[in-house]
Amino acid sequence: MLRIFVDVRNWSIAIVVLLVLVSSGSFAQQEKRTLTLDDAIKIALEKNQDLTSARLEVEKANAQVNEAIGTALPSLNLTANYTRALKKPVFFLPDFEDLNSGRTIAVEIGSDHSIDMTLSAQQILFNSAVFTGVGAASIYQDAAKEMYRARQLETITKVRRAFYGMLLANEVAEMMRENLKNAEDNLKNVQIMKNQGIVSEYDELRATVGVENLRPAVIQAENNYLLSIDGLRATMGVAPTEEYNVQGSLSYSPVDGEIVKQAMETVLQNNPSLGALRHQVDVNRALVSIQRSNYLPTLAAFGNYQYQTAQNDLRISTRDFIGSSLVGLRFSINLFEGLQTNAKVDQAKVEVRKSEEQLNSVENNMKTAVHSVVLQLEQSQKRIAAQERTVEQAERGYKIATTRFTSGSGTQLEVNDAQLALTQAKVNRMQAIYDYVMASAELDQLLGRLPSYAESSLN
After folding, report:
1. What letter would DSSP give residue 17?
2. What's the CA gap between 459 and 18, in Å, rounded?
3. The dihedral of CA 268, 270, 271, 275: what is its sign?
4. What gap in Å lies between CA 363 and CA 365, rounded to an integer?
5. Hey, how many other C-beta atoms are within 10 angstroms of the C-beta on 402?
């Protein structure tokens, strides 16, 4: 009985372990998330490391604004000192008991212990550099936000490129598997017809070679698809072990014609890189004013309160302390600094001119880039329309070739040629669609077009 009990108990444990493994496997399968293009973009905006660095730069700019504002606010300092005199200073008096001797008497001054506490305050009333610096810091903050927005657009474009590339690789893999299936079905038909004496052994060999030639192409296409998924994970900033059920298809969706027409004006208004450069020009102009402020005076109000005592022993109470206070104005101006201010102002002006030239150059480059992308859109759109017709014709040709072959009036070579032509037409169509969606992604980046959930991250 004991042995039977042990066996039953072991079986119970095994069943429990099996249930745990099955449930954990089901749970792991449930954890496999569905991934759309919007999901991939949201994950990248949250986890992409380059974007995280840009976000930290915005936080740094916010802190610099607070620092600049702090220079215009009052400053308050508290200092406290305790002094123990090891040897007191002296001053000399004549010997009043014997004035004719010409001798002097050393008299100690001060106390063995002294304590003093001082509370001082200062407020800048006028300083051009301080107030200009606050404005410059705010401009730099806006520039950092524009650069962060530019990095967002760059990240989104990279994700779209990786996602579209993955969809293209997936459709190519599916097409190659479909071609392989068609070739295998054709081989079966050829073998049946060969057994019936309708076709020759040569036709069977050509059909067999066609199947075997497609197998490595299918393997390569499936491998390319897996590599494209790894590239998407890297762009999103997630671990290579993350598993997703990817949803989406490489489909043609034309860009709004009004957006394309106004692209040249929109890029100058909304492109964040241009916006950041314009802010940089404003910052450099503010730096010129800051350097010029060295010619101007500084006026500050100050005040302090001092609380002190001095005793020869440490039996000190609050009644022994004496307070004193004062207030005043401090005026200072630089009269001569070896022409350093002139040199600094000249350098700041040069930086302004450099930034303006850079801005003009980037504006021209942006116009050229928009013009190029618009041409790519138009070209890809024409290719898509042409390839749609080509695919239809290739499909019809393949049906005719297979029908002719099965009826005995065609050859296996015609079937292979028709299959190759259909494959090439489908690839060309998919490539045209891919080129179009990639051009639309680049256009969105140039025009500063962000999805709503990305815009909210700037607030």
Report:
1. H
2. 50
3. positive
4. 5
5. 19
The domains of the chain are located at: 32-73+127-297+333-458
Query: Position of tokens 């506490």?
Result: 117
Pairing of strands 104-108, 90-94: antiparallel
- Please state, in angstroms and rounded to a whole number, the distance separating the CA atoms of residues 437 and 442: 9
Q: 67: Cβ–Cβ under 8 A, 6 or more apart, which residues? A: 137
Closest CA to 377 of 445, 446, 437: 437
Measuring CA to CA, how many Å separate 41 from each of 14, 148, 302, 323, 333? 44, 15, 55, 66, 55
321 three-state secondary structure: coil
The one-character DSSP state at 254 is P
Strand, coil or helix: 198 = coil
Distance CA 458, CA 146 (A): 10
Q: Find out whether 443 and 374 touch, Cβ atoms under 8 Å.
A: yes
Separation of alpha carbons 200 and 112, rounded Å: 124
Contacts of 222 (CB under 8 A, 6+ apart): 173
Q: 22-79, pLDDT tens digit by residue? A: 444 444 444 667 888 888 888 888 888 778 888 888 888 888 888 888 888 889 999 9
Q: Which residues lie across from 303 on neighbouring strands?
A: 121, 327
* Dihedral sign computed on CA atoms, order 426, 428, 430, 433: negative
Cα 141 to Cα 65, 102, 103, 136, 450, distances in angstroms: 7, 75, 74, 9, 20
Predicted TM-score (pTM) of this structure: 0.71
Q: Report the topology of domain 32-73+127-297+333-458.
A: Outer membrane efflux proteins (OEP) (1.20.1600)
Range name among 14-28, 86-100, 236-250 with the lowest pLDDT average:
14-28
Radius of gyration of the chain (CA): 41
User: CB neighbours of 188 closer than 8 A, spacing ≥ 6?
Assistant: none
**Helices marked H in 31-127:** 37-47, 49-72
